[in-house]
Specification:
The protein is 43% helix and 14% strand. It has a four-stranded parallel β-sheet with strand order 1-4-2-3, with helices on one face. By secondary structure, it is of the alpha/beta class.
């Protein structure tokens, strides 16, 4: 099972394995407080893509498509992430204030769609 939550929310046992899916480390948060098992910065959206997107709701569909292409082009990074997903509950944590249209949600959707095709 994949969950998604802001990295600033208190870690809980129900989170399972916490994976940071942002390219940049969250401001003002120590590694100890974040309780991150894996920082998947190599599969987070490229700097160019995240700057272009800027959490603009009108770009959400295009962002997901472009991010999906980046993920598909990084099989090694995806393989490592999927190893964590196969172990049980994983929570993708992100720092954006946007709770619905963020890269963690896009990544979750991508993996869930990928899993159905496999």
């Amino acid at each position: 099972m994949i969950k998604v939550k802001r990295v600033y929310e208190k870690p809980e046992a129900a989170d399972g394995i916490r994976v940071l899916v942002d390219r940049l480390w969250p401001r003002g948060l120590t590694k100890e407080k974040a309780e991150i098992a894996y920082w998947a910065k190599d599969i987070s959206p490229s700097n160019e893509l995240r700057r272009w997107y800027g959490h603009d709701p009108d770009k959400w569909t295009a962002f997901r498509e472009r991010y999906g292409k980046e993920l598909k082009a990084n099989p090694d990074g995806m393989s490592r992430l999927l190893d964590y997903v196969k172990k049980g509950t994983v929570t993708f944590v992100y720092s954006s204030k946007e709770e619905r249209i963020n890269n963690a949600e896009a990544l979750k959707e991508y993996i869930e769609a990928f899993g159905k095709k496999a």
